[in-house]
């Protein structure tokens, strides 16, 4: 009888795999799905705010209220879709910038103390 690997998903269901590599790939996919959901929410909020600000900046305030609302919703949904689609790349860039900032901060502290 072959050895089986199982794991519990975030939603409570149990999945079974034939190899540990498949189980690890499933864990990685779940992690990136969670990251994509967070970037989706952040992109939705940021896109809505930017679209709302663009109404005043570019002089679209004479548009009817329904058109302004449509502009804000379209901006929010568009930015959410783009940020969710690029979530792996954005996550890696964010982590890289964080690591660079930490190293730079430690270097600045050491430079100031020496």
Automatic annotation (TrEMBL):
Top-rank taxon, per record: Bacteria
Residue stretches spanning the membrane: 35-55, 67-86, 93-113
The entry's keywords: Membrane, Transmembrane, Transmembrane helix
Protein name in UniProt: Uncharacterized protein
Lineage of origin: Bacteria, Pseudomonadati, Pseudomonadota, Gammaproteobacteria, Salinisphaerales
């Amino acid at each position: 009888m072959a050895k089986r690997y199982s794991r519990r998903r975030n939603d409570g269901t149990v999945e079974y795999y034939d190899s540990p590599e498949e189980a690890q790939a499933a864990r990685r996919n779940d992690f990136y799905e969670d990251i994509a959901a967070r970037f989706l929410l952040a992109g939705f909020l940021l896109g809505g705010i930017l679209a709302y600000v663009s109404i005043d900046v570019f002089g679209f305030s004479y548009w009817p209220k329904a058109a302004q609302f449509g502009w804000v919703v379209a901006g929010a949904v568009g930015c959410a879709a783009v940020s969710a689609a690029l979530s792996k790349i954005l996550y890696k860039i964010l982590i890289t910038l964080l690591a660079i900032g930490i190293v730079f901060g430690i270097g600045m502290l050491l430079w100031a103390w020496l």
